């Protein structure tokens, strides 16, 4: 897995270096570090999306088998998938992406609460607002609209997590 990540990281960094050369900008170590962090965040996000979808399907099947005819089964499945997949994402972002540096500390409880708030903002509120804009106002296909929204919501979620949810303080 680490080998695959290293290849992905090198390809993306190479593309960014070309972009920086074309624009005649300097890629500092700080910028490169931020790009690497964003790549890790993207990988965690991809795994989060897969986990969320699998949980959604699992809960739907459980409700179908044992719950009878629940009218809003998809809503229950969405809520369970959201709660558990954000917990998954929090664990990996805390352990792998937004590591605590030496001499710093993080209140894990507040980081978790802030993570749920940031994912609720981008994953629930923002996605629904953009879905309305793309589908009902601009006529974008409803299967394509969520992909367009990802282009906007992922960077926003990264910034909210980096600067707010996983913010560290000096000891």
Write a concise synopsis of the structure shown.
With 171 residues, the chain is mainly α. The chain has five helices and two strands. A two-stranded antiparallel ribbon has the order 1-2.
| Global geometry | globular
Strand order of the largest sheet: 1-2
- Number of spatially distinct domains: 1
Helix amount, in percent?
Answer: over 70%
Helical segment tally? 5
- How many β-strands, per DSSP? 2
Radius of gyration (Å): 19 Å
Q: Describe the sheet with the most strands.
A: 2 strands, antiparallel
What's the average pLDDT? Answer: 87
Q: Runs with pLDDT <50, length 5+?
A: none
Strand content: under 5%
Sequence of secondary-structure elements: HHHEHHE
Structural class: mainly alpha
Distance between the termini: 34 Å
Give an overview of the whole structure.
The chain has helices spanning about 1-20, 30-65, 75-95, 110-135, 145-165; strands at about 105, 170. The chain is built from five helices and two strands. The chain has one domain. A two-stranded antiparallel ribbon has the order 1-2. By secondary structure, the chain is mainly alpha-helical.
């Amino acid at each position: 897995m680490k080998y695959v990540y290293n290849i992905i990281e090198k390809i993306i960094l190479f593309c960014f270096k070309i972009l920086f050369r074309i624009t005649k900008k300097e890629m500092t170590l700080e910028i490169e570090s931020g790009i690497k962090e964003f790549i890790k965040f993207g990988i965690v996000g991809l795994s989060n999306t897969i986990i969320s979808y699998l949980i959604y399907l699992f809960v739907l099947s459980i409700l179908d088998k044992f719950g009878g005819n629940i009218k809003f089964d998809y809503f229950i499945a969405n809520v369970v998938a959201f709660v558990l997949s954000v917990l998954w994402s929090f664990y990996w972002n805390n352990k792998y992406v937004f590591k605590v540096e030496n001499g710093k500390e993080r209140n894990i409880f507040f980081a978790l609460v802030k993570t749920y708030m940031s994912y609720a903002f981008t994953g629930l509120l923002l996605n629904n607002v953009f879905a309305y804009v793309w589908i009902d106002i601009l006529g974008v296909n409803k299967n394509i609209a969520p992909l367009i929204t990802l282009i906007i919501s992922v960077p926003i979620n990264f910034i909210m997590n980096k600067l707010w949810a996983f913010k560290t303080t000096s000891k």
